[in-house]
Design brief:
Helices cover 43% and strands 17% of the residues. It is an alpha/beta fold and 249 residues long. The protein has a single domain, classed as 3-Layer(aba) Sandwich (Rossmann fold). Strands 3-2-1-4-5-6-7 form a seven-stranded parallel β-sheet, sandwiched between helices. Helix 1 crosses helix 7 and helix 3 runs parallel beside helix 4. It is globular. Bound molecules: NADP nicotinamide-adenine-dinucleotide phosphate (NAP). The site of NADP nicotinamide-adenine-dinucleotide phosphate has 32 residues, from helix 1 and strand 2.
């Protein structure tokens, strides 16, 4: 018996990294799964990897109108939803003196504004019980240089998990945050840095992680399975930090 048998799950950004691994684990635990992404090539690759039972929907997490459209598609396909993993996210790192408005606006749109409007769009579909899981980051907890905008978007998600839980728990809807430390995924390669900068950034992170390695996407996905399942029904408005000790030791 799977831990998510019969549950209907939407994972935003389910095409690579943490989202793709979580989709695999949700499926293995018996859930029906829909994923989103923006890149047609990785959407198609994820569809092939996950199998034809998975709904792979092109949808931009930073586009507010697209959140309502996504809600309609989920309603048509599933008729309701038991699990929402808000995972789609982007990261752009740089010092505050080089901050530009377009980068700020895009990161907030994808990482925080879109998720709020997605929850709004999905409200009529959310079952009793529903588990909402927000993918945050330990950057919201530590003062790492060059991460001010990214960290602020993720701090917003920690706050959102509490507010959503307070507002919706009477409907059986609970929200929690996972705050990962550095995890080996394609996200770093998307930051626009040359290879040597990426290498020294990775070495610097690794030196700061007490277990001396990056985490694996599967080490976040297992936590997402726990939070998605009824095993975590007493976990409400909480933050689960999974970072090899980086923010606590
Ligand atoms: N890796 C880490 O060290 C780490 C640490 C802490 C938190 N996180 C968080 O974990 C989440 C997943 O990241 P990851 O590390 O697994 O990186 P990733 O491999 O780059 O995955 C990001 C996923 O989000 C999707 N995505 C990006 N922008 C999107 C948009 N506008 N609309 C819809 N989908 C979008 C991507 O698909 P497309 O490219 O097709 O859009 C992809 O499926 C992010 O929220 C990230 O902030 C990661």
């Amino acid at each position: 018996m799977g831990r998510l048998n019969g549950k209907r799950a939407l994972i935003t950004g389910g095409t690579t990294g943490i989202g793709l691994e979580t989709a695999k684990q949700f499926l293995a635990e018996g859930a029906r799964v829909a994923i989103t992404g923006t890149n047609p090539a990785t959407l198609e690759a994820a569809r092939a990897a996950l199998g034809s039972g998975v709904l792979a929907i092109p949808s931009d997490a930073g586009d507010i109108a697209a959140q309502a459209a996504l809600g309609s598609k989920i309603g048509e396909a599933f008729g309701g939803l038991d699990i929402l993993f808000v995972n789609a996210g982007i990261a752009s790192f740089g010092p505050i003196d080089q901050l530009d408005e377009a980068t700020y606006d895009r990161m907030f749109a994808v990482n925080l504004k879109g998720p709020m409007f997605l929850v709004k769009a999905l409200l009529p579909l959310l079952a009793d019980p529903t588990s909402i899981i927000l993918n945050g980051s330990i950057n919201a907890r530590i003062g790492m240089p060059n991460t001010s905008v990214y960290a602020a978007t993720k701090a917003g998600l920690i706050s959102l998990a509490r507010s959503l839980s307070g507002e919706l728990i009477s409907r059986g809807i609970r929200a929690n945050v996972i705050s990962p430390g550095p995890i080996a995924t394609p996200i770093f390669g998307k930051m626009g840095f040359p290879e040597d900068v990426l290498k020294s950034m990775a070495a610097s992170f690794q030196a700061q992680i007490p277990v001396k390695r990056f985490g694996e996407p599967s080490e976040i996905a297992t936590a997402a399975v726990f939070l998605a399942s009824d095993e975590s029904r007493f976990t409400v408005g909480s933050e689960l930090v999974i970072d090899g000790g980086m923010s606590n030791l």
